[in-house]
């Protein structure tokens, strides 16, 4: 029987009667192996084709769109490439997508909601690493005034609070996702008084840019992805406090917070020399100035940070 394609119509003759069906109306049920290809016609009839001799012709007529299963069966190389592309996509999603999704969620969350969600982080940390501060009220009020003047006129930072603690983790300052800046006695006793606004400005940058919340979201999303793929939900069971201690900010976040502090200092006409002095002091504390220190909020080396100030003066 002669079957041909006439401008989108499948045409054939049966007992001298011409039959024509639009190719787009013809269905092709899945078939496997070397079984003949069977087409379902709109009139309820079927047409059977030898797979080997007809499959490329039918494919060029677009009646033969292969199922996934058949593609794998007939084109293993193509399948391998699809597999590799999928893995690359997953890695890309992990590397680029999760930070983007986390950023979007973090900035879509109002500060009041953040306080509600993250308000217990400090309580958790108090259980694990902190003791009450030994600072006197006058010192505390000085630092509070320094914070007030830094956030004056910035409604988006009006929720920021200071918390003073003493700790075996030593000199440290960091910003919790709910907008609490924790300062350790050890840090305040170590640094010259005029460098503290620089510490606060840097931490305000982390809060403004929602760094800690973004990092927690990224970890949670990555943990969820791992749990889905591995079927192991134990990766999801970890407390916020433990996560905070276990991980450092990325260099990118630190740089952003440093830039925020520099911009704030310039806007308010503050002396950038105080920022430089701060980084020198913190650098000396680090020893090598490396990022691998006991800080919860681990910073780039002093030289790099001072360079950033000079570039942005
Ligand atoms: Zn930082």
From TrEMBL:
Pfam families: Peptidase_M48 (PF01435)
Transmembrane regions: 77-95
Domain annotation Peptidase M48: ranges: 153-311
Cofactor or coenzyme needed: Zn(2+)
Cofactor binding note of this UniProt entry: Binds 1 zinc ion per subunit.
CDD domains (alphabetical): M48C_Oma1_like
Domain of life, per lineage: Bacteria
Keyword annotations from UniProtKB, A to Z: Hydrolase, Membrane, Metal-binding, Metalloprotease, Protease, Transmembrane, Transmembrane helix, Zinc
Name of protein: M48 family metallopeptidase
Keyword Transmembrane helix assigned: yes
Keyword Mitochondrion: no
Gene3D superfamilies in alphabetical order: Metalloproteases ('zincins'), catalytic domain (3.30.2010.10)
InterPro entries: Mito/Outer_Membr_Metalloprot, Peptidase_M48
Organism: Limnobacter profundi
Family (UniProt): Belongs to the peptidase M48 family.
